[in-house]
Specification:
By secondary structure, the chain is mainly alpha-helical. It folds into two domains: 72 residues, Serine Threonine Protein Phosphatase 5, Tetratricopeptide repeat, CATH 1.25.40; 59 residues, Serine Threonine Protein Phosphatase 5, Tetratricopeptide repeat (Alpha Horseshoe), CATH 1.25.40. Helix content is 75%, strand content 0%. It is built from eight helices and no strands. The longest helix is centred in the last third of the chain and has 25 residues.
Length: 156
């Protein structure tokens, strides 16, 4: 949805290259104009991801929380907060965030994947395996959809 927005290209490319300093600056600049709704949640979440790369976990947590103030069901921010909690060993809180993310967006494979990891760490092996398998099916389906959307070229 927002990934294809031209004005976000520089920030997203920097994030993809792991140039977290530039990505943080670009997302901050984009947030200075008044984005609204999901666009604001998207930008805050992505800036939070850049800040994780810069080891600025407290600032990242603030960005993820701010994204959730815009949209309490924004699955990427819920998932990222869950990951911070998981890193801190707060398994049940992490699981709760991942479960909320999955409830918010059944097709968000990353939330299912991280939920599976958290379940396994909590000793909930069967649930973990189910979540991991579901994440894999989602990724396979999304990959197949993406491949179908590319035009086929004939070789000569």
């Amino acid at each position: 949805m927002f990934r294809n927005r031209r004005e976000f290209a520089c920030a997203l490319e920097a994030l993809g290259r792991r140039d977290f300093v530039l990505a943080q600056a670009e997302f901050t600049s984009l947030l200075e104009r008044p984005p609204d709704g999901l666009e604001r949640a998207f930008l805050l979440n992505k800036r939070g991801v850049a800040r994780i790369g810069l080891e600025l976990r407290d600032l990242a947590r603030e960005d993820f929380a701010a994204a959730l103030e815009v949209d309490a069901c924004y699955a990427p921010a819920l998932t990222n907060l869950g990951s911070l909690l998981l890193e801190e060993g707060r398994l049940e809180e992490a699981i709760a965030h991942y479960e909320r993310a999955v409830e918010s967006d059944r097709d968000y494979a990353v939330a299912h994947l991280n939920l599976g990891v958290a379940y396994k760490r909590a000793g909930r092996i069967a649930e973990g395996v189910r979540a991991l398998r579901y994440a894999q099916r989602l990724e396979d389906r999304q990959r197949a959809t993406a491949l179908r959307s590319f035009p086929r070229f004939r070789s000569r």
